[in-house]
């Protein structure tokens, strides 16, 4: 019986230590969020959030966290796109074009949810050959009034 009580006391001590660590960790995260100033304007993030039909009032820390995670997402997307561009062109070109972004969306699974927003473009000539688009090269005369 004494060993069972001792084990319970040890478990209770571990749980309180874990809870204390969680509280301290959460406080540290909150402090880091307060100290970090996002580059995206919080007012714009609030305005975008309020357009959601299921919007509910949110703390400023949530908006700051949203801004920071958005910046991290954009940074990750840009870095992946840039690395693809450099591999494909075998140069240190730091200029990204739409096709690079579309290629990144197709290639990496974590960006595939952007497929509708950043679709791959197709050459008009190839679409005409595949009979997916009708296009004529006849010029239309402008009518002068």
UniProtKB/TrEMBL annotation:
Keywords: Nucleus
All copies of domain Transcription factor CBF/NF-Y/archaeal histone, residue ranges: 39-105
A cellular component term, taken from the record's GO annotations: CHRAC
Entries under SUPFAM superfamilies matching the protein: Histone-fold
Pfam families: CBFD_NFYB_HMF (PF00808)
Protein's cellular compartments: Nucleus
Domain of life: Eukaryota
Gene Ontology biological process terms in this record: DNA-templated DNA replication; regulation of DNA double-strand break processing; subtelomeric heterochromatin formation
Main location: nucleus
Gene Ontology MF annotations: protein heterodimerization activity
Entry-linked PANTHER family: CHROMATIN ACCESSIBILITY COMPLEX PROTEIN 1, HISTONE-LIKE TRANSCRIPTION FACTOR CCAAT-RELATED
Protein name, UniProt field: Transcription factor CBF/NF-Y/archaeal histone domain-containing protein
């Amino acid at each position: 019986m004494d060993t069972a009580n001792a084990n319970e006391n040890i478990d209770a001590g571990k749980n309180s230590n874990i809870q204390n660590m969680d509280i301290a960790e959460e406080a540290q995260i909150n402090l880091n969020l307060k100290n970090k100033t996002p580059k995206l304007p919080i007012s714009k993030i609030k305005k975008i959030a309020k357009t959601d039909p299921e919007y509910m009032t949110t703390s400023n820390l949530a908006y700051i966290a949203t801004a920071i995670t958005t910046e991290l997402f954009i940074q990750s997307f840009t870095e992946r796109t840039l690395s693809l561009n450099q591999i494909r062109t075998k140069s240190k070109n730091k200029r990204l074009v739409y096709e690079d972004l579309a290629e990144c969306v197709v290639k990496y699974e974590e960006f595939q949810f952007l497929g509708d927003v950043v679709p791959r473009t197709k050459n008009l000539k190839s679409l005409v050959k595949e009979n997916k688009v009708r296009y004529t090269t006849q010029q239309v005369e402008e009518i002068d009034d």
